Amino acid sequence: MPDLFTTLITSPLAKKAGVPQPTRLRRYEPGGPLCEGPVLVAGTGPYVAPLRQWLGAAGLALAETSDAATDRLGAVVVDLSDATDPGQLGLLKSLAPAVKKLRTNGRVVVVGTDPATLEDPAHVATQRALEGFVRSLGKELRAGATANHVLVGGEASDGLRSAVGFFLSGRSAYVDGQVVRVDATRGGNPNEERPLDGKVAVVTGAARGIGAEIARVLARDGATVIAVDVPAAGEALARVANEVHGTALLLDVTAPEAGAAIVEHARSRHGGIDIVVHNAGITRDKLFVNMDDSRWDSVMDVNLRSILRMNEALLGPDGLGGGGRMVCLSSMAGIAGNRGQTNYAASKAGVIGLVTATAEDVTERSITVNGVAPGFIETEMTARIPFATREIGRRMNSLQQGGTPRDVAETIAWLVQPGSAAVNGQVVRVCGQSMLGA
Amino acid sequence: MPQTSPRPVRRAAILGGNRIPFARAHGAYARASNQDMLTATLDGLVARFGLAGERMGEVVAGAVLKHSRDFNLTRESVLGSQLDPHTPAYDVQQACGTGLEAAILVANKIALGQVEAGIAGGTDTASDAPIAVSEGLRQTLLAANRAKTLPDRLKALASLRPADLVPAIPQNVEPRTGLSMGEHMALTAEEWGVTRAEQDELAAASHRHLAAAYDRGFFDDLVTPYLGVTRDNNLRPDSTVEQLGKLRTVFGRGPDATMTAGNSTPLTDGASAVLLASEEWAAEHRLSPLAWFVDAETAAVDYVHGHEGLLMAPAYAVPRLLARNGLTLQDFDFYEIHEAFAATVLALLKAWEDPRFSKERLGLDAPLGSIDRARLNVTGSSLATGHPFAATGGRIVATLAKLLHEKKQQDPGRTVRGLISICAAGGQGVTAILEA
Ligand SMILES: NC(=O)c1ccc[n+]([C@@H]2O[C@H](COP(=O)([O-])OP(=O)(O)OC[C@H]3O[C@@H](n4cnc5c(N)ncnc54)[C@H](O)[C@@H]3O)[C@@H](O)[C@H]2O)c1
């Protein structure tokens, strides 16, 4: 329920008075088109032709050049992954008329080469420059439009398709100004409408909030969901599990045997695990100098240490097999820091470290481990923030609104697809390009 | 090819259970109806076992204190639950034996191949109990309803007396003796010389065992919180014999009275359900049986003219059950004897140890003997959990099945067994054997 303040500033009167109005974001619907057309694919890189072919096959109209196009554009995709000299970036400028023609909820996706794989200073600088361009353009775009960046390492056509597809689609509604790196690992979705068909997914903290929405979205995409939460949340958990036709498993993720219990439940009842989403998390805010041990310890234990402990079983011999997927919930606070949240931010930054290191460990087993860092998400938790603070939190991002649990869930549902095999060790922010943090 | 000849009898498996925490009457569940509680309990079971949208062979449950509008209580609960609405259901009622009798019925149909899987349960609220109008008011209203003209109707209504307006609140009283169950029990306790100290000892143990079971997470997959209650709220983890010894007696008369509110069960609200199935259904659904339903026996005593205690029927049922299965009273790893009152359990145990009772009443050459008390109600029983009448059977069946499963895992080499004994109003007793 919107509070009075929200009602006021979104009223027709406020609109007339010039208060910026958030755009209703285009969100993913199964079976719907990938994005609105026509799409302009530009650039000099090697992916221009394959991207055009793929988008055409997906039924999207393609614009030939930005000048000739009289229509509004749904998206602009630019491949400059071949650029080695900053001079070649001038091509971006020629796209200004096309960007001007972007529709509401339009998309800009820039494809580059992962600078970490390059050596020559001019080459590295050129590719790195693209990131600055994307992040600034994201802040300039209006009306729900986003700009994101895909970095290619190696001959990464499957990974590129998965990431570009995500950024074009409504799944990425609240993902803006982000960089995602894809490697050369191959993989596609056997069934685009139900990409998670036949998969067994464990979601911790699934009784409410973001976790409950993750359970719903994974189930919608075809997964059988094992919904995990503490015994005290059993009533709500049962509702979620029944709604998604999954099973409820009551356990505290901090229990020493939690990982083994999940593996045992998944093995015996569903034949194994394909997907794990470490979502359970708590906040116990207090200024650092006033923080007692129990606040520090409980936040560390639930948000970080439990994941390390459970992963011994979840990534052990009976846990995730080849093609397995794991996603851990980090937070904007773990990247940018937040007053009153030294414990929480430490735990969530720790999660990022855990994701990067674990991803490297399991890559040869064809398992991916990624992180998602939500920004301001409209949940019961954020609804309790006093309205002025909340309104600022909500608006301090390029999309000028809060995200929904659904936005976080859609990003996770993309990361765990078979077709996202080339996305590993990444932390994707779902924050509408928040002004806090990088 | 028609297959109309009798099929071989199969084993019925207990796959698990669910209940809501039991709550003292007029407290946390004061506004919940029997149907609300049973529906929530079914949904918790459905979530635990992934049964949303599943058609079960049948759901059998009941309530002891039941509104007349709840004539189809179980079916209505099924329709409100996440089970496939094509799941049939029926109500049973056998006082405090309701829940166990429901499990017997489902197990028997599974054994005969008439259903593959079913749910047995029970629910009771002492808070939302039906209140009946007085017999005078009822007769008057019925007469007015039958009257054809307005003057006739008014004449019928005019016969109403002020006393007729006093409602009849259900009482825990035996209709044929006018004695409450507690008063009946007090007579039996005195007859068997059950002491106050013994009763308080048993009550303290019940609380201690229940608290310990909660603490080790035993109930994490047996209980789903409801309306903010996460544990049975009658539980007093630090209850001691000393504290219990200070309570005044409430049943029985004179200085020899022994029964208090501490060693008797309080009025309680709650519901429970148990999932039973054939071995094949369990395997198809990747569920492993916790235990098997072996056999059951129900007995009744003539407490009106026959000088037997109202709650002593299990004393008769158990020897018959044992004889039929070639077992002795000592062949069990666990005994679940419903603690209607601490004295009920103690009187039963004394009866089985007593040579004269065994010879004269049971017609046995030797008494059944005593049991290892360390195996009795090891995770607590009704004195600690409370006793929502029809829900007690389901609580006990699921608890015992899990205990047997745990024991079997520690000791896979042999068959482990448990005995259930539940006394019920009307001088009845329902008993059963489970094994793993
Ligand atoms: N809401 C936001 O704006 C936001 C922003 C950034 C990150 N996050 C992260 O997203 C995740 C979900 O957040 P939310 O807003 O949905 O929170 P929430 O409090 O609504 O839900 C968290 C769930 O986790 C469960 N949980 C807590 N401790 C547990 C334990 N020990 N074992 C099992 N389950 C446990 C809770 O019972 C609850 O159901 C958290 O990790 C949170 O840190 C949220």
Automatic annotation (TrEMBL), chain A:
Gene: fabG
Residues forming coiled coils: none
Entry keyword annotation includes Membrane: no
UniProtKB keywords: Oxidoreductase
Highest taxon listed in the record's lineage: Bacteria
EC number: 1.1.1.100
InterPro entries: KR_dom, NAD(P)-bd_dom_sf, Sc_DH/Rdtase_CS, SDR_fam
GO molecular function list: 3-oxoacyl-[acyl-carrier-protein] reductase (NADPH) activity
PANTHER family, alphabetized: 3-OXOACYL-[ACYL-CARRIER-PROTEIN] REDUCTASE [NADH] (PTHR42760:SF78), SHORT-CHAIN DEHYDROGENASES/REDUCTASES FAMILY MEMBER (PTHR42760)
SUPFAM superfamilies, sorted: NAD(P)-binding Rossmann-fold domains
Protein's name in the database: 3-ketoacyl-ACP reductase
Keyword flag Oxidoreductase: yes
Record-linked Gene3D superfamilies: NAD(P)-binding Rossmann-like Domain (3.40.50.720)
Limits of the Ketoreductase domain: 199-375
Family affiliation: Belongs to the short-chain dehydrogenases/reductases (SDR) family.
UniProtKB/TrEMBL annotation, chain B:
Domain Thiolase N-terminal: residue ranges: 13-280
UniProt xrefs under InterPro entries: 3-ketoacyl-CoA_Thiolase (IPR050521), Thiolase (IPR002155), Thiolase-like (IPR016039), Thiolase_C (IPR020617), Thiolase_N (IPR020616)
Keyword Acyltransferase on entry: yes
Keywords for this protein: Acyltransferase, Transferase
EC code: 2.3.1.9
Record-stated family: Belongs to the thiolase-like superfamily. Thiolase family.
Protein name: Acetyl-CoA acetyltransferase
